Amino acid sequence: MKPEFENIPLVKTDKRFEIDVNGHYAFIDYRETKHQIALIHTEAEPELAGTGAAAAVVEKTLNYIEESGKKLLPFCPYVFAFIKKHPEWKRIVDEKFEGYDKL
Fold first, then answer.
1. Closest to 92 (Cα-Cα) out of 55, 42, 58
2. What pLDDT does residue 37 have?
3. What is the average pLDDT value for the chain, to the nearest integer?
4. Domain total of the chain
């Protein structure tokens, strides 16, 4: 994560994880059960394109999921690609996830 995002807090609403970068948002839509958090869609407002904000919200969200003790279901293609690029995060992916063996 780029240093400029480290001190920006992750906010969890009932529908998404988000960070506010100078009034612009990067966020991930999710669904949560007792034991799992499914990440559905990652998006950053156009003003944040190319800044690393999307990667920052993903990394902050993965940290949150790990700290919660829940397992990750990375349905979002961006999150899936992020984990492929950073395989150390596979440790929080639910082994029952259909694409687990492709990570």
1. 58
2. 98
3. 97
4. 1
- Return the pLDDT at 56: 98
User: Domain of 24?
Assistant: 3-93
Helices (H) and strands (E) counted in the chain, each on its own, are 2, 5
Per DSSP, the three-state class of 69 is coil
Which of these, 53, 18, 16, lies nearest to 38 by C-alpha position?
16
The stretch 66-89 carries a mean pLDDT of 98
Q: Is residue 21 in some structural domain?
A: yes
From CA 29, how far away is CA 58, in angstroms rounded?
11
Residue 9 — very low, low, confident or very high, per pLDDT cuts 50/70/90?
Answer: very high
DSSP letter assigned to residue 79: H
